[in-house]
Amino acid sequence: MMTQHVKEFFDQATWTLTYVVYDEQSRDAVIIDPVWDYDPAASRLSSASAEEVAAFVKDKSLKVHYILETHAHADHVSGSQILKGFYPEAKVGIGAHITEVQKVFKGVFDLDASFPTDGSQFDILLEENQILKAGTLEIRTIFTPGHTPACASYVIGEAVFTGDALFMPDYGTGRCDFPAGSAAALYESVHEKLYSLPDHYKVFVGHDYLPGGRKLQFQSTIGQEKAHNIQLNAKTTREEFVHFRSTRDRSLSAPKLLLPSVQINIDAGHLPQPAANGVPYLKIPIRR
Hints:
With 288 residues, the chain is α/β, with parallel strands linked by helices. The chain contains seven helices and 15 strands. The protein has one domain: Ribonuclease Z/Hydroxyacylglutathione hydrolase-like (Metallo-beta-lactamase, Chain A), CATH 3.60.15. The strands form three sheets. Strands 1-2-3-6-8-9 form a six-stranded mixed sheet, with helices on one face. The chain has a six-stranded mixed sheet with strand order 10-11-12-13-14-15.
């Protein structure tokens, strides 16, 4: 009998939740949405967050099969390649529609013509309802676009990891104003897909912003979300949500790590190739 557990790691600098999902008996494990710490003022990376995850994996003697991304994050740099260094046999996976995001941002950042937009930087591209086996763990992918066109949620046992599609009930949902984002698509993703899961399924969110200064919360249930989500509950109409989300998104500032994060994350967490002086550089477009 599988004894599934979830261990959370919270990066307060980016409000990000990383999860290790594992079977206590078989020691099989997957890691979801790891963080590579980035100081934008110094443009310096550190692997403290990834090393904390790795220390837990070592302590539990876990075998990491997959490192999964719910989407190409715009608010933190992915630590997938740092963890890949610890676990070279683990595969980095993401939803197959990452190719759409790569094509958009290749143009935004005027990336080199050789930059692939076929998702080949990732070890595995996941299709909707694909069942991924990680030893005794089974992961089912649900496409949940809206925040980005490539967002995916992962169902493991009676738990679903929603990334930025669905947050805690007192915070709501992810924003939809990034290129190719869509409030209407997010409504369908949450209302028609996530809310079709059994009410008792646990929801593990991708971020918690500690609204009102409350303590960290990262787990709810489908039933709680349907009843109490302040932005999109079971009774919210498509028109209400699209109007609310569109209006709210116009008032939001861009995430402070948007430009470095997206460039690295659409490349599966790889840094750009070093320049002639041995230093890798990121591009920052200037807007007037």
